[in-house]
Write a structure and sequence with these properties.
- The chain is mainly alpha-helical.
- It has two domains: 110 residues, Rna Polymerase Sigma Factor, Chain: A (Orthogonal Bundle); 74 residues, Winged helix-like DNA-binding domain superfamily/Winged helix DNA-binding domain (Arc Repressor Mutant, subunit A, Orthogonal Bundle), CATH 1.10.10.
- It has eight helices and no strands.
- Helix 2 crosses helix 3.
- The longest helix is centred in the middle third of the chain and has 32 residues.
């Protein structure tokens, strides 16, 4: 286990842009195991856990750099990161549920008897979602379609679109989703 670095030092270094790679490696080495364990405890698979660790680290680093993280006395950084983890996992589960519902809807043509009001709302939602999706760049649309609709593996996507590695695909997918969320103002 790495030598403990005080939270104040971590925050100060990141805000000054000093040893960002070292601090990031330290955060990963120190906290990734507990984050992965938490995700597995909630029913996540190892790949899910690894994805969430990356998302948590990126979110935390963004919060520091953008001044959204406020260091308070007795801040437990591990607990703070688990809080981010919980929110990321809940969002992922909500997204998975919606994805399964959409797949069912496209496969069967309906998910439940719908009222005219719900049909109009669903159509409006789909139209807006499609419009946001169309605003993404070509590579983003290809990667997201390959992963979510075609259910291709990260390895296949990396090879098909010459993105280099699975890590590069994960990062591209994450950035594309962030762009999509920004477009949708979510």
């Amino acid at each position: 286990m790495p030598q403990l670095i005080p939270t104040e030092t971590i925050i100060a270094n990141l805000r000054r842009g000093e040893d960002v790679n070292g601090v990031t490696r330290y955060l990963y080495a120190t906290y990734s195991r507990s984050i992965k364990g938490y995700i597995r405890k909630l029913g996540g698979l190892p790949d899910d856990a690894e994805d969430i660790v990356q998302e948590v680290m990126i979110t935390f680093l963004h919060q520091i750099v953008n001044g959204q993280f406020e260091l308070r006395e007795q801040t437990d950084l591990g607990a703070y990161l688990i809080g981010i983890t919980r929110r990321k996992w809940l969002k992922k589960m909500e997204s998975e549920t919606r994805r399964r519902e959409r797949q069912h809807w496209f496969a069967t043509g309906s998910d439940d008897p719908q009222t005219p009001e719900t049909i109009v709302l669903e159509t409006d939602y789909q139209s807006r979602a499609w419009a946001y999706f169309q605003q993404l760049g070509e590579t983003c649309r290809q990667v997201l379609t390959a992963f979510y609709q075609d259910e291709q593996s990260l390895e296949d996507i990396a090879a098909q679109y010459e993105l280099g590695s699975v890590g590069a695909v994960k990062m591209r997918k994450f950035r594309c989703i962030q762009k999509l969320l920004k477009l949708a103002d979510v």
